[in-house]
Amino acid sequence: MDPRSAEARTDGVDQFLAAGAPWFLTLFGRDSLWAARMLLPLGTELAAGTLRTLARRQGAVADPATEEQPGKILHEVRRGTQNFTDTFAVPPVYYGTVDATPLWITLLHDAWRWGLAPEQVEHLLPHTESALAWIRDQAAAADDGFLRYVDRTGRGLANQGWKDSGDAIRHRDGRLADPPIALCEVQAYAYEAARGGAALLRAFGRPGADAWEEWAEGLATRFRKRFWVEDAQGPYPAVALDRDGRPVDSVTSGFGHLLGTGLLNQEESAALAARLTGPDLDAGHGLRTLSSDSVGFNPYGYHIGSIWPHDTAIAVHGLVRAGFPDAAAPLAAGLLTASAGFAGRLPELFAGHGAAAGPHPAPTPPPVAPRPGRPLPRSWCCARPWAWTLTSRAARSP
User: Fold this and answer.
1) Are 393 and 11 in contact (CB under 8 A)?
2) What is the mean pLDDT of the chain?
3) What is the DSSP string of 306-372?
4) d(CA 27, CA 49)
5) Domain 13-393's class?
6) Digit-coded pLDDT (tens) for 169-196
7) Which parts of 62-117 fold into alpha helices (H)?
8) Continuous H helices in 28-99
9) Strand-pair category, 182-183 with 240-241
10) Domain boundaries, the chain
């Protein structure tokens, strides 16, 4: 089956949530998938539209210029090449993301569990198999069996997880990690996708379910052996492995993305739940992206200390799924407090000072942080503050 031929709605239009208002409003694979997943309790139509829109643009060939690969889910779509600087530009259809592909599989699995019609799920199973094959092939290409990324174009994103700024992945002492990089949360996404993909294959009578469950358990074993490190507070998973397989040992909000995926056992989950509620990460208004105890911490830094509402929401989701509602509750309450401080219009990110810092404890955005109703200067790069509903015609080309 042509990987671009996903079935569309009968009226020829699919809905998805576009991120990046006001200047970068477009289809972002990762962001659109997460937003649709969070809204599943309200229905499955948005998830179905998002899945089909991305499936029609699923990678079909190997193209180094766009980082397209067979089975891969794209990062973003634009009307033309976006030239940010002399050394940073992305093509109209850009595949520079390591996490959108497993997240696509997990959204399909979750939408199915929430009641997406079996015939709609079945239409997307060939794309699921292609996405699983991409995960398998990328992990097999690495010496350690982990999903890794590296920008081979020299002009794309240096970091290709959700923390995609150039200084986001760093050691506890402040040194930047050398690529290819294996992010901790991406391994959790891959584990969850393999398990969810296996459930879909088994339910619809397609082969490979047992093999994918075995693959997932092998990944969990490797993760436990290679990622876990220890400091004075006890063991925790490094944010990543660097080019040489060394743990990138900073303490980050990424713990929240691991919880509830099945990758961790109960003891490991309890350790991370305790870490997430510590004052170095929980600022009272949400989770800091980087521990305030780390070298290089900057409460205004894009991914090195600021608070991202969606990141905290993922941690709340993971804590509840892992059986720690008491740890999730204050994080959720902190987001609500932050929202009130912004008159109900949360920005993309805001400063990670802490709720009790200074005479004005209300959260504050960085000077150019985008938020609804606030103009965004053209110099702000890669901004994805809010999701807006757009439609996608059921075309068979990007």
Assistant:
1) no
2) 88
3) -B-HHHHHHHHHHHHHTT-HHHHHHHHHHHHHHHHHTTT---S-B--S-TTSSS--S----TT---T
4) 12
5) mainly alpha
6) 999 999 999 999 999 999 999 999 999 9
7) 100-113
8) 29-38, 45-55
9) antiparallel
10) 13-393
